Amino acid sequence: IRLGKGEEVTNGRDKNSLLADALEALIGGIYLESGFAQTSIVVNNLIKETLVSAMAKGAGLDGKTALQELVASLGKGTLEYQVSETGPDHDKSFTAIAVVGGNNIAEGSGKSKREAEQSAARASFEILRSEIE
To answer: Which has fewest Cβ within 10 Å: 11, 43, 52, 105?
Structure first.
């Protein structure tokens, strides 16, 4: 980045606002020259590490919420859970399958519907996250 003398003296190279403006200009130039598809590849490569790090932390969310946000950010379609139950009323077991965009991603089980869905969500989150790493 070429900076004026004033910005050089005041450590302009370390200012987040200038760096953000430069990155925005670069991305805009790539878009104008190469179109959306190429720009998307470049942006994904730039933010992938940060995105993966945030997702690894689950963004402080429970499994179902983290999976919902990941699915939305990846544009994978809708997220649904197919839940089945087995066993007598006093000792039921639940199995949930996380379905994303019509595709079964992962299965989870538990003693309640919520527990089974959370288990399926956590497993699905790991599978989808590994696809973008």
So the answer is: 11
Distances (CA, A) of 83 to 80, 102, 112, 113: 10, 15, 10, 7
Do the domain assignments include residue 24?
Answer: no
* pLDDT one-digit tens code per residue, 96-120: 999 999 999 999 999 999 999 999 9
**DSSP conformation letters of 31-84:** HHHH-HHHHHHHHHHHHHHHHHHHHHTGGG--HHHHHHHHHHHHT---EEEEEE
* Prediction pTM value: 0.56
Two structure tokens written together for 29: 């130039």
